[in-house]
Amino acid sequence: MNADESHSTRISTLLASLLGNRELIRQLTWQDIVGRYRGSMFGLAWSFLTPLFMLAVYTFVFSVVFASRILGAWLATVILSA
After folding, report:
1. Which of 37, 48, 56, 62 lies 20 to 30 A from 80 at CA?
2. pTM surpassing 0.85?
3. Are residues 79 and 45 both part of a single domain?
C-alpha cells in the first residue's frame, strides 16, 4: 500500500465515521448553539445581526466617507495635472 492509498483510506474512514455519527454530531452542535446563546436577549439571531450591522457600517464608511476623500484627491490630481 502506497501513501496515496493510505491517505484515501483514512479519508474514507473519516467520512464513514462522520456519516455514521451524524445524529450525534447534530445533537452536540445544537446543544452548543443553544447553550452559547442561552440567557441573551436576542439569542441566536444576535449572531446574524452583528455581522449585518458591521456590514452596514463598513458600507457607509467606504462608500460615503472615503469616497468623498478619494473623489477630492482625484479631482485635485486631475486639475493640477491639466
Report:
1. 62
2. no
3. yes
Q: Any idea of the CA torsion for 11, 13, 14, 19, to the nearest 10 degrees?
A: 120
Structural domains of the chain, count: 2
As a whole number of angstroms, the longest Cα–Cα distance in the chain is 72
> Residues 5-27: pLDDT tens digits?
666 678 889 999 999 999 999 99
**Do 46 and 40 contact (CB within 8 A), yes or no?**
yes
Q: What's the rounded Cα separation, in Å, for the pair 25 and 30?
A: 9
| Residues 14 and 32 occupy one common structural domain | yes
Computed on alpha carbons and rounded to an integer, the radius of gyration of the chain in Å comes to 26
- Inter-residue contact 54 to 60 (CB < 8 Å): no
